């Protein structure tokens, strides 16, 4: 019985991948989508190799806001997405390589309009926000909501956080709205609490130094003599 189930599951996966390869813009090798709840605009969705997308996903790339040529959803190689993910692009969402996404995550580059208080929100136009990009090697916790923001490389987003502003490389962000609580110091090669980083900045300013922020958010100091 177990052997029969294994054979059935393997054949089912093969046939599904053959079908998906005909409807998606791109579907890489060894990628699998487990029983999605809804797929919209698949001709605008590109999925790389070795991607796994869990049960009940809703993937969409639909140009509600008029970006017919630009609209796309890109999921690069090695991405793992948990169950019941909802990812909806009206212009562009890009998930870079080797990103780990937990269950029940919502990612969008748009919002429902609500400006007219005399019109039900469901009848108001979709508002285009900024393009979304999630950098390589990130870990996105369960229940996270990302709307119109760019997340840097190797960032950790804590469970149930709401991200509406950019998060730089090598940070830990948590909360609603999200705030950075840790940064990685590339010079010392350690994670530092955000409070300690700010305290060090104040102390150096008192000593007559000036801070320079590098591209990777490492703080350096030049002292005037």
Question: What would you say this structure looks like, in words?
Answer:
The protein is an alpha/beta fold. It folds into two domains: 2-182, Hexapeptide repeat proteins (UDP N-Acetylglucosamine Acyltransferase, domain 1, 3 Solenoid), CATH 2.160.10; 186-225, no CATH class. It has helices at residues 2-23, 194-206; strands at 26-27, 32-33, 38-40, 45-47, 52-53, 58-61, 72-75, 80-81, 86-89, 92-95, 100-101, 106-108, 110-112, 126-128, 132-134, 139-140, 145-147, 150-151, 156-157, 162-163, 171-174, 179-185, 190-193, 209-213, 219-223. A hairpin with a 5-residue loop joins β24 (209-213) and β25 (219-223). The longest helix is centred in the N-terminal third of the chain and has 22 residues, at 2-23. The radius of gyration is 21 Å and the shape is globular.
For the record, the count of structural domains works out to 2
Element order, helices and strands?
Answer: HEEEEEEEEEEEEEEEEEEEEEEEHEE
Q: Examine the secondary-structure arrangement and name the CATH architecture of the largest domain.
A: 3 Solenoid
CATH evolutionary superfamily of the largest domain: Hexapeptide repeat proteins
Tell me what portion of residues adopts beta-strand conformation: 35-45%
């Amino acid at each position: 019985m177990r052997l029969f189930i294994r054979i059935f599951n393997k054949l089912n996966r093969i046939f599904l991948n053959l079908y998906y390869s005909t409807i998606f813009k791109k579907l890489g090798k060894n990628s699998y989508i487990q029983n999605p709840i809804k797929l919209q605009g698949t001709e605008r969705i590109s999925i790389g190799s070795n991607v796994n997308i869990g049960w009940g996903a809703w993937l969409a790339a639909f140009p509600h806001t008029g970006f017919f040529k630009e609209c796309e959803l890109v999921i690069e190689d090695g991405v793992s997405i948990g169950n019941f993910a909802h990812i909806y692009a009206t212009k562009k969402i890009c998930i870079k390589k080797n990103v780990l996404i937990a269950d029940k995550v919502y990612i969008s580059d748009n919002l429902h309009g609500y400006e007219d208080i005399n019109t039900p929100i469901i009848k108001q136009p979709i508002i285009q926000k900024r393009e979304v990009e999630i950098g390589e090697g990130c870990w996105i916790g369960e229940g996270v909501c990302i709307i119109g923001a760019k997340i840097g490389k190797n960032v950790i987003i804590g469970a149930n956080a709401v991200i509406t502003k950019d998060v730089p490389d090598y940070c830990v962000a948590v909360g609603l709205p999200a705030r950075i609580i840790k940064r990685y110091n590339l010079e010392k090669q350690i994670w530092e609490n955000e409070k300690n980083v700010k305290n060090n900045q104040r102390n150096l300013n008192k000593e007559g130094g000036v801070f320079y922020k590098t591209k990777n958010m490492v703080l350096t100091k030049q002292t005037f003599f």
